[in-house]
Amino acid sequence: MSESFNEISRLEPLDIFYVGERIKTYFEYPAHCHEVYELNFVENAAGAVRTIGDSRETIGNLDLVLITGSKLVHVWNQGTCPQHEIHEITIHIDPDTFHGSLIDKRAFASIRRMLERAQRGLAFPEPAIQIIREDIINLANSIDSFASVIRLFNLLYRLSLVEHARELSSSSFINAEESNEDKRISKAKEYITAHYMHDISVQDLANLACMSEDGFSRFFRNKTGRTPNRYLIDYRLGIAARMLVTTKQSVSEIGYACGFNTLSHFNRLFRESKGCTPSEFRELF
């Protein structure tokens, strides 16, 4: 990626995970991605801006995110956070720990689903972080190697049961496929993937499903939680955000390449979705 770098983790080959704990006054680490899984805990940093893929959010006093996508670019910026004692704990986990037959066992089902969702970045609600906070701190201070691994697995299991954890980056930004969908929905999404740079009408998608336009719109919304037009806009914005990070094309070139007819229309929809302009989003990286 042209505007970010691949971080080399301090995780040793013979270790399952590595924990780094720090007290700092400023977020200065640049945008990056890495092969290892990352669980990042931040407290006392209300007002800082967290960017995961094409998700950009201002965080509160407690923030906890799990990232398992190896190409998912992420960064924390200062935002309006005062420069005081920010507490950060970063846990890097060897992905090979969860490959093979172990993760397929029934006991790991909820952890497996969580790791799959975290390919887009997974943010946990503050009430859950308050409950789990001591577990994270105890893990960071754990000395015994075997006991610390048990603590890690217990922490991941407890997190996998948390309700209302939110996926952050769009699937189009990370170029991920969504499985276990109705064939009519999948066919419509495949058409959008192949033709998003051109004009696409709801009727075009309805024809693929052999349904009326109104019937298809209701069906699509019931299945995905979004209208066909909203899904198309979000998909285009995800592609555009990825191009802003990975290419040097101008904002206008990217907007037109992603199917937006005017630069002003692209800028307006991007700001409404991401909370910043395309140019500001690019500057974050």
Description:
By secondary structure, the chain is of the alpha+beta class. 42% of the residues lie in helices and 17% in strands. The chain has eleven helices and eleven strands. It has a six-stranded antiparallel β-sheet. The mean pLDDT is 91.
How far the N terminus sits from the C terminus, by CA atoms, comes to 10 Å
User: What sort of overall outline do the alpha carbons produce when their principal axes are compared?
Assistant: globular
* Rg, Å, rounded: 20 Å
Q: What's the pLDDT, averaged over the residues?
A: 91
Succession of helices and strands: EEEEEEEEEHEHHEHHHHHHHH
Number of helices: 11
Beta-strand segment tally: 11
What would you call the quaternary organization?
single chain
Sheet with most strands: 6 strands, antiparallel
- Uncertain parts: none
